[in-house]
Structures are given as structure tokens and as C-alpha cells.
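This part of the workshop introduces the protein records we will be handling. To make this concrete, we reproduce a full record directly below:
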Amino acid sequence: MFCMECGNKNDDSARFCSTCGKTLSTTDTGKNSHDISEFYRAVIGQKNQDYYFRQFSRFDSDGKIGASWHWPAFFVTFYWFLYRKMWLNALIYFILPYVLMIPIGIVAAAGGEKAADTIISLGYLLYILGIFLLPPIYANALYYKHCNKKISEATASPYDKQRQLGELYAKGGTSNIILIIIIIFVLFIPVVGILAAIAIPDYQDYTIRARMSESFVVGKNATDFVSN
């Protein structure tokens, strides 16, 4: 079966395009909306399931993804991507500031002082749009495509429906990696800082005493040499 959105060829039993995540015709696949809702709920997981299911149902009824607003993606974008296991999106979001600002800085430097302020101002505007506004506006759409791709991969397997749902429960849902990051920042880094605050002065005192001892030995040897 070919996707009407991107033209990619999919398995005849697939419900979603493996390339773009577009919902395929349920009449061709022989699947009904009840089946789709089960797969949606499996890949979303228990956290905020009803909210995302409503968003996904709206996209399906419209036949396309659209803009919306997502507060977690506005306040903690990077961590939200990690929380929802959208690893590639998290990586892109992390490197996006450098991708945007480095070329802007090069163009500003090449344009001279007069053009630099204008170029930097436009670049800062693009930065604000790319970092703070676009992610929350299209967060639900990105997550929709992410989940549809996972469903497409699961349903392409030869296993039965329950096995496919179990695979989606395992690969979907949320990740606890944020808790690990919080523990590292809240506990590990302060402990390292405290140990460094204690160890560095002690090390400095040790090096000072070692130098003084070395100076004393050198001075004593010089005195003994002169006396002899």
C-alpha cells in the first residue's frame, strides 16, 4: 500500500506510514477505530493518556497534523522530549542554538559593523522562534508522528495483536532519564563541589609545604657546602 502523503510503499497490514507517520486508509487495512485507539493508548502510556489521545483523534479526523499549544514543551522543551522518549528531537533541540547562531555570527562578521546589528537582531528573532515558540506549537504534532511511526513498526511485525501492544507499551510511554539527570545535578554535582572545596585548599597547602621543605633542604645543602 502506498502512502497518499509521501508516496512511501508500506505493508498491506500497516495502519500508519513507516516514513511520515500518516494514517493509512482503515478500509484498506481492514482495521477499525477501536483498534487504532488501543494502539494509541499503548504507545502513549498512562501519563496524560487522555490528553494526547484527544489530540491524536483530532489529527486523524482532520486528516492532517496542525498547530496547537503544549505548555510542558514551552517551559521544559528538552526534558519533555527526553520524557516522551523522543531522543532524536531532543538531540536536534540541543544542538539547534549552535546551528542557528554560528552561521549568523559568520554572516554578521562578514557584513561589517553597519550590517552586524541588523543581522544579529534577525538571527536572535529566528533563535527565539526556533527555540521557544515552534516546539510548543508543534509538540503535539511531533509526538503524533513519533507515536504513529512506532505503531507502524510494531504492526509491521508478524506477531499477534497482543504482542504488538506489549511491544508498544515497552517502547512507548515515558522515560525516567529525567530523574537520573535531576539526581546528577541535585546530588552529584554539589557533592563534587564540596569535595573540591575541601581538597583544593588542602592540596595548595601541601604544595606550599613541599616547596618550603625543598627550599629548606636546598638552603641547608648550600650552607653546608659553604662551610666546608
The helical segments are 26-29, 33-44, 49-62, 71-75, 77-83, 87-155, 161-171, 177-227. Residues 48 and 173 are 10 Å apart (CA to CA). The chain is about 75% helix and 0% strand. Residues 87-155 form the longest helix (69 residues).
